[in-house]
């Protein structure tokens, strides 16, 4: 009977609720972007403060919620991920081309944090290649942030936990990209509406 019970328990799936500090994650994206892509286009004006969305995950402990300098701690974890650091630097190397594409209106900042085509006619084949590479780098950055959040929660870094954290990591990255957009660039709201900043 004991072996049977042990077999059943070992097959059970344990759901871990991961605390997601949305504001700190958004701030960590900014810290890393400024540090690792120093040429990153700075907004012409201070971005508006927007209310944070409610936390979608249950709190693991109240200590996380009140931890000072959490954004810096998250950024420190991400700095130790070579693939993510390389993705930031790769984007930094393409900033001049990206800025031209965004300023022309050919591409905009999509609601999923990716560059989205706004006007097909304005894009050259080389620019499409750049756009694809930047979006691949952005996916690496977002996944790295999700991994960092799992680590600060001391939770197992598995697909189940990554899937739980990824939607919020995407949302905060997209919010950061919208806030960082320069005047005149196209940005897409979370609802899918396009506006020129």
Please tell me about this protein's structure:
This protein is mainly α. It has one domain (18-45, 56-196). It has helices spanning 2-11, 22-36, 62-65, 70-79, 82-93, 95-104, 125-152, 159-180, and strands at residues 107-109, 115-117, 186-188, 194-196. A hairpin with a 5-residue loop joins strand 1 (107-109) and strand 2. Helix 4 crosses helix 7, helix 5 (82-93) packs antiparallel against helix 7 (125-152) and helix 7 (125-152) packs across helix 8 (159-180). The longest helix has 28 residues, at 125-152.
Low-confidence stretches: 7-13, 40-66
Strand order of the largest sheet: 1-2
Number of strands: 4
Q: Could you tell me how far the N terminus lies from the C terminus, measured between alpha carbons in angstroms?
A: 66 Å
Overall mean pLDDT stands at 84
What is the helix content? 55-70%
Task: List the total number of helices.
Answer: 8
Shape descriptor reads: globular
The H-and-E topology, N to C, reads as HHHHHHEEHHEE
Task: Give a short summary of the structure.
The protein has 197 residues and is mainly alpha-helical.
Overview features:
single chain; 197 residues; mainly alpha; two-stranded antiparallel ribbon; globular
What's the SSE blueprint?
Layout: H1 2-11, H2 22-36, H3 62-65, H4 70-79, H5 82-93, H6 95-104, E1 107-109, E2 115-117, H7 125-152, H8 159-180, E3 186-188, E4 194-196
Antiparallel strand pairs: 1-2, 3-4
